Amino acid sequence: MTGTTELAIVYLALIGLIGAYVYRLMSRLADVESRLEAAENAVSSEESD
Fold first, then answer.
1. What is the chain's mean pLDDT, rounded?
2. Residues 11-28: tens digit of each pLDDT
3. Distance between CA 49 and CA 43 in Å, rounded?
4. How far, in Å, CA of 18 to CA of 14, rounded?
5. 3-state DSSP of 1-49
6. How many CA atoms are closer than 13 Å to the CA of 27, on its beta-carbon side?
7. 32 vs 49: CA distance, rounded Å
8. C-alpha radius of gyration, the chain, whole number
9. Does the model's pTM come out above 0.85?
10. Distance of CA 48 to the CA centre of its chain
């Protein structure tokens, strides 16, 4: 393989790794957001009692 081909392969792998990292980060953020919403709902229902 030429240097350009190797560079292109590594570049595509890096883009894939960054994409996987961002996907995982966004899914964790959604999970944290749903947990926070549940905690807020629990606190607000306790306050209204």
1. 93
2. 999 999 999 999 999 999
3. 10
4. 6
5. CCHHHHHHHHHHHHHHHHHHHHHHHHHHHHHHHHHHHHHHHHHHHHHHC
6. 6
7. 26
8. 21
9. no
10. 34
- The single residue listed with the structure tokens 């996987």 is 20
Backbone angles phi, psi at 2, to 5 degrees: -85, 165
- Per-residue pLDDT, 1: 81
Q: Which two tokens stand for residue 12?
A: 């595509």
Sign of CA dihedral 33, 39, 42, 46: negative
Across 9-18, b (16+ Cβ under 10 Å) vs e yields: eeeeeeeeee
